[in-house]
Amino acid sequence: MMASRCAPSTGLFLPFLYPSLFRHKAARIPISRFTRSIAPLHTDSNISTTLYDATSSGSGPGSSGDSSGATTTAPDTTAPLTTDPSSSSADLPTSRLNPAPDDYAISTFADKARVTVHAGGGGHGCVSFLREMFLAEGPANGGDGGHGGSVYIQAVAHGETSLHRLARGRRSIRAGRGKSGMGDARGGARGDDLLIKVPVGTVVREVERQDPVADEVAAYHAARKQKREYDRLVQEAEEAAATKARAEAENAGVSGEGAVGSFNGRGSRRRADDKKRKIEDGDDGFISSTLAESEAAARAALGLTEDPDPPNLHKFILYPGMSPGERQNLSLPRYPRRERLLAQPEAPIRLDLTAPTARPILLAAGGLGGLGNPHFVSKERPRPLFATRGEGAVSVTLDFELKLLADVGLVGLPNAGKSTLLRALTRSRARVGNWAFTTLQPNIGTVVLDNHKGRPVVPPAPKPSSFRPSATTGPFAAIVNDASSPSRFGSVVMTGPDHHIVCGDGSLGSNDAGAGGGGPRTRFTVADIPGLIEGAHLDRGLGVAFLRHVERAGVLAFVVDLGAGDAIAALKALWAEVGLYARMREEEENEREIEDRIDWEGDGSNSGLGIGDGVVSTTGMDGFTSSMSRNGSGGGGGGRKLDIAAKPWFVVATKGDLPSAQDNYARLREYLDDVTAGREPHPSGVEDAWTDNCAAIPVSAIHGHGVDRIVHWVVGLLDQ
Length: 720
Ligand SMILES: Nc1nc2c(ncn2[C@@H]2O[C@H](COP(=O)(O)OP(=O)(O)OP(=O)(O)O)[C@@H](O)[C@H]2O)c(=O)[nH]1
Ligand SMILES: [Mg+2]
Known about the structure:
single chain, alpha/beta, six-stranded mixed beta sheet, 15 helices, 31% helix, binds guanosine-5'-triphosphate, binds magnesium ion, GTPase of the mitochondrial inner membrane that associates with the large ribosomal subunit, GTP-binding, GTP-bd, GTPase activity, GTP1_OBG_dom
């Protein structure tokens, strides 16, 4: 038997021949090993611990404990607070209210967008004539062009929660252009209208606009002026030439008489007479030669190379098959004066859409379609070889700004527990993590008070005055003493499978969403924004820009972490930032008002938006200003109060389960009692700020304890 020529497979050359096989194999082994060895460095829990340590604004001394046992026990969110007073989020089992950092729903959110909206231009009119077998030159039958589409805006309460669709990518939005008319008297189709849907709470401001109709009018006036000037110069030149010729003829006659009898004299005399007669008779050849000269002189004077076009030529479409003679003899009629279908809103457009708009509001009106040639038939001009062009359309650059119109705005330092509270109040899946700036964009949730099943989920709220917490018998004591039952109000169970409170991420509430229609309030919305830090108004941290989302909330809830140092200091720091933000906004508004006053001076009509065709704006200019100075003292310059300080507010003293929370709460309570009684100034330092009933509601959001009190308190404040 012949020996194999190949050496028995030792595998020696295989890696060189098939490196991919080996790379694959080799890769597999270390990956799993690496995973095991490096995983602890990259897990979320590790990141959170690291960041927590760095920021040191966590939930107290117990929070940096070992999280290894986190998944061993089943979630017990109804556990009483007293079971383990030193528990921190890291020690607790994961649950809906203590989720892993990767358990959250990403929401695409944008609160600002700059977009140029273009209305559609009108389609052109058509030049056409009927032609049939025995009718070679029938009447004009060109169709009219279709009107261009318009752009509208509508604020909707449901379905839109953010401006991300406007902010994303596209910087311009176009309505449809009207189609041009066609032969056989077929009119062009209308351009499609465009409706921009925005969430309630959107403010729209015009930045710039281009109106081709206005440009056309200006171009027409310039062309007409030039044409007049040209005609004047031509006439002058002709008159000068005629006078000169007449003078020459006279001179020639005189010199001829002086040479009576000579042949030459007789000849020149005859020529001069001829010339004189021709001038007097308006002889064509002579006139045309002087006219051409005069026109050339006028063109030279105006710096033109050709005769100027009729001023309104650009508004007409000429029949392409026109002969040069027809072109020469073309006399265009006056451009017909026409009204736009919809009146373009006057500049500058400013809308504050604080309520759903029943009817769309016009932003940019579409252009008119051009007229077909039958419109220009007359006795003198039975076969018009022209039609009009479609009107150009307006384009407006607009700034959109969304100020969420939640009923309650949560304001707190980073890591205070705002998102956990939102999760406890609603079915929001806002991100929660034990580090600062977990929340990078606002979250909004809806608290449903009535599930429309005939039985209110939440019993009628007590009036805030009858529910005023006190240091001794207040809710904090209730939480501790009533630890076995999660709610003092019995019927509200904040956790568990039959959770009645839903998050309406897809249904943005408005200030009147709950009590809309005059009935009892059925829901309210809560906005959770990124944490504020000291100096946020100087753009530290994530800045104060997100405060715009709580600026118009009905009630402000200051979320203070009872386990993170002095709660009073935290509250004062928050109010200081809010106050500075309010002042900033007020200055901005004042500046804008002054700018507008200058803009609007020219036409003297500042009565709001000129929205035509019955489109009604729910809030125009007046609505805008009034919303900003709703609580102000009537716009009197420096005497204006801060709006935000005039809002009802309360403190949510969260993380009540942590040690030292009791003392901290007691001090906070005392301080707030003093503020209510007027012994202490308002924490923002603003005079006349709202201090009717400054409450601190202790909760442990992570356990879902005490959140029902917040629901009642808010309902009481909103219904005030
Ligand atoms: N012990 C305890 N921990 C809580 C409570 N509420 C929240 N936490 C923890 O506090 C940490 C921060 O919670 P978040 O809800 O993310 O805080 P936040 O205010 O939204 O933070 P930012 O979004 O960064 O501003 C998390 O680890 C929570 O588990 C509570 O009532 N008790
Ligand atoms: Mg958060």
